[in-house]
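Continuing from the previous page...

OK, I double-checked the sequence for Protein rogdi homolog against my notes and this is the correct one:
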Amino acid sequence: MAAAMASAAERAVLEEEFKWLLQEEVHGVLRQLQDILKEASHRFALPVGGTEGPIKQENFMLGTSSTDQVKGVLMLQGDALCQADINLKMPRNNQLLHFTFREDKQWKLQQIQDARNHVNQAIYLLTNRDINYQFKTGSEVLKLMDAVMLQLTRARNRLTTPATLTLPEIASSGLTKMFTPALPSDILVNFYINLNKLCLTVYQLHALQPNSTKNFRPTGGSILHNPGAMFECGSQRYEVSHVHKVECVVPWLNDALVFFTVSLQLCQQLKDKVRGLLAGDSLCFKRVSDLLKWMT
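Thanks. Re-ran it with the corrected sequence; updated structure tokens here:
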């Protein structure tokens, strides 16, 4: 009987702890998450003088490539490249080419836009309830944390995992029409985000002659294509002769990735605590039930 009473007391303690968790600690964690993710969302918007202010423009100097063939400056405004000023030295004759975005053009970086949308969806999930709302079950909390973590994981993945593109997709992306003067037919460019870096890849192409004896094998999708990759655009076949990749660090993207990591850790810690109390309560109930069966 004493053992049964002790187990019943243990269960009562667990129930009180679980009640406190649902009524107090969960809401404290949710407030923390809201504060962190609002900071992350502000990083993407980069407002000036308030959340509704204009988005400021930032200039980034592209790091030199290994062969120093590509140099330039990119102007980023939120999720859009509003200007690109690029110098390209052609390896065959050392000719220097200079390109800039046309004044009427901007290039949307879909990765940044998608990541911010996922952050805002996570904030919506955290705030979409009455201020006095009380959680009633642990499974309700777990379900919310899973939904928030899904959005945060998707936001992080959009920055850490650039989409793979085939060379024909890059050629038809519209970037070739962004520049003045127009890019030569033997030049392709691609912009993308990788972690906290804004990257530019320049592909120099060699047109394959119709009577070429080379075994033509079209390349598949990739983030970065290597020299020797082949593709067909229209009726012309090309081979990549040179690849130049340059990049620059965007500090606020690094901040956002840190916020994602901290938020995911907070979500996981809360899930672990809820599951631990649920498991303890279940074990305690089993011990009481077993003792009562033994006594009868």
